Protein 1
Amino acid sequence: MIKFENVSFNYSKSDDRSVKNINLEIKEGEAVLLCGESGCGKTTLVRMINGLIPHFYEGEMKGQVLVDEMNITSEELYETARKVGSVFQNPRSQFFCVDSTSELAFGPENMGLPEENIKARIERTVESMNIRKLMDRSIFDMSGGEKQKIACASVDTLDPEVCVLDEPSSNLSLEAIDDLKETLKRWKKAGRTIVVAEHRLYWLKDICDRVICLNKGEVVFDMPMKEFRLLREDDHRKYGLRSIEENLSMMPVKEKISFANNIVLENFAYSYKKYDALNIDRLEIPQNEVIAIVGPNGAGKSTFSKCICGLMKGFKGYALIDGKRCRKKELLKKSYMVMQDVNHQLFCETVMEEVTLGMDEENEERVLKVLDELGLSSFAQRHPMSLSGGQKQRVAVASAILSDKDIILFDEPTSGLDFYNMEKVADLIRLLRGSKTVFVVTHDPDLVRRCATMVLSLENGVIANKYTYGEKRENGRKEEKCYTAAV
Amino acid sequence: MKLDRGILMDPRTKLLILITVTTFALGGAGGEATAKMVPVLCMVPFVLLLTAKRFKTALIGIILFAGSSLLLSSANAHNMGGFLYYMILGCCGLLGRFLPCIMMGRYLMESTTVSEFTAAMKKIHVSDNIIIPLSVMFRFFPTVMDEADSIGSAMKMRGISFGGKHSSKMIEYRLVPLMTCCVNIGEELSAAALTRGLGGKVKRTNICKVGFHFQDYIAIAICIVPWILLIMDVVK
């Protein structure tokens, strides 16, 4: 079905992220997992199958890619679109319309199909994916999981023979990943050929039959899933892979926690026009520990984060820190959020300027020390936008430390990261423990187990569970349900 | 939550209202002849906003509009002069003229779906080269707002605000990250649209039905009056 013949590619803008001498054949109805560390070339392969390379992303390409005897490399993109459907990583930038129904119709409309046919296709997709309640709604008001469902549905209405997905689970909660898994299962049953590039592997173990691992643009192994599941952890680590038998338990790290000097959050409640997003009367949190905030989409995690950072308009609650009552305004001074899209918070022309922006007085010695601790010394004169994602994150953290913030909140710091980079983030957060109170909003069990010392699980705006190491009763439920396990 | 869009109107009607309101309320075309129609026209956007259940926006708009008109007319009645009068004239005049147009524009953006808009433009035979960029704009506005919001929060956390230490660089700090983010999103968006077959040679279909209904005829009737008055004025 899909054939790579001696394919090599170099992006014209940068030297890295190229692929070399790829020869692959993927059979009809096969489900293939592409894995490997960040920048290994898996996204490049996906872009070759859907034709974005070489038609949209420019570079030097050798060899050719065939899908069902059609030469993707020379064929126009809109012809490829009939055969290959694509789902991307970022749910917010892959829909073209504002409302969900038009979005589903968008693909078939481009094909010039008759109106009745399009309506029938939408109806069939809505029925089979069970998304009736998402229809006729503004996509801007949807959660990440729902947006990703709409993205899948709009691929489904085109009825392609091949579906490619590029890190589709990066921004999803564990619950939303389950839904995505169902969709893929349905596609596979319908006989479609599926290619998924992913970092999180566990959810694909019963879907994909074949695993292709890339490293520095070359295929390092290509084996059936059965064999891949027999590999040892070390083999996974060697290529920067996360475990296929991912441990979904969110058990924090075993550490001695002092509850002597707690931060007390009082009246952490907030409602939007129609519903209560957050409703916490009183919550005690140990100071200078790492607290993971977990829970499904829409549980109130982001509302909670905004409240604690003092960003919520009209928020009436307060925190008692060292006996002092901090309301919205003081919280804004005391806390800092490292956003999921770090690009939002980098303003200056050099890293040095950036990290000293919020400082009350210049203190070069201290700046250099912090930069050194975070491994940023050699980048001090670089433009922050020229750094990699992880480095940008460190710059944001450095500026928080230097502006003497007491509370640092990370908003999904590991979404879309491979094993190495996830561990680096965990190291960074561990470094902060003991001097800052750190909140980590995350869906990533690996990260929780590596750096959190306490877990707060939110559900419907209330604390459903709060535990430290050993406190949580593992009640031996099925793995899928493990993460929502309540005490 | 379903989209709450108030009275369903053809996008072409909405465009006609927008053009009419801007021509007569903002541009002041027709002078004496149409002056009596202007307040009626100015009320149209607020009524439409009310039907779309944007009560707060409509109410604030009406109060501002009525307030500025009253203030201006009372200032005129008292034969005021000097600096204060010019201040009132300037502020209220601007507000009174711009507000209805802005409200109408907002109503148009909020109540029209991209596909309705495209369908309507197709019906008046506008070329695809104009329709596609315009429809992308519809999609892009909310995105830019979202991004700007996050950047605003990030700035607050860094203590960058008016009156703060870095107030001179406010605009730079706001715009630079905004542009970076919009460029990224724009690129991803185009990639996604291309993989779904946008730009093909076949004629696009549109499942969206647009057409004129009772409410459209009423609105058109209201809009036509000042135009006729204007033409009569010119011919005379």
Protein 2
Amino acid sequence: MKPSFPIAPSRRSLIKGAGGATLSAVAISLLAGCESMAADKPMAANPGGDVDILNSALGLEYQAIAAYQVGAESGLLQKPVLDLAVQFQGDHKQHAALLSSTIAKLGGTAVAAKKPADYHFPVETLKTQADVLRFAAGLEKGAASAYLGAVPLFANKDLAKAAASILGDETMHWAVLRNALGENPVPMSFIA
Amino acid sequence: MKPRFPSDPHVFAASLVLALLAAASPAAAQTAATGAVIKMMDTFEFDPSAVTIHAGEAVEWHNASRFKHTVTADPKLGGAVLPAGAQPFASSELLPGGSFRQVFAVPGKYRYFCTPHEGIGMTGTVTVLPNEPKS
């Protein structure tokens, strides 16, 4: 399945919305991974709490990276679905790198990825490409829900905005995976 | 203020029975021994994820995280598994600091999950052993 639209939007299009509104300098630097810009700005008023939330998110990104690795190595994914999975894994790697560097900027310690076996993925239930897609879709939906819960918790609004940006990406992944399964890609008006 | 009772004694009796029945389940939940306590974590995990209790005991879940979670054991809502004869159950959305308590009467293995976070592995099991015969 090859989507007819670019799955990963350019940073320019991400940063500048349809209404022409732009993200703040700190959010842009966070999203772009620009060390110097982010370091120059004051960060969270509640850095300890924000670090903990970022670490929760980072743990999920590591889980997603490991899950897509399982999917890619399963031998069940055929091109172009395999390419899509690798691309989504790449997105999660970018999220993880951004979260990890932001935690470091805030003076925190980033959590480490678990060993693949410690995620207890249901590998015994993955028998077909559809099984892998459904597993990945569930994971993306869960991640989107987790980011939805995280966004209002950040003391630093720029971090909330950056998390919302990742939330949007997870939701796009979920929709595309549902579409690949032949399901309604947008089954609801709101996510929970 | 004077309490207002139904004037018909049959209606009153029926109301009383219904009220007692309604109160029975929460009372049982309160008096059942707590067989296990499970925390809901910021890492989107139940801790511990697997517990074993005896029939008639309760399990308590405490949301120790910053996120909202649920305890859901309903096959219609996700990948829950219940032993034969057990009724599905589900908490409401638990805010940080919130808790939920469930008494397990039917022995067997229960698989439950957090509704929004099932996909990222927030699942757990409760194994309920038959009651030990009292000596």
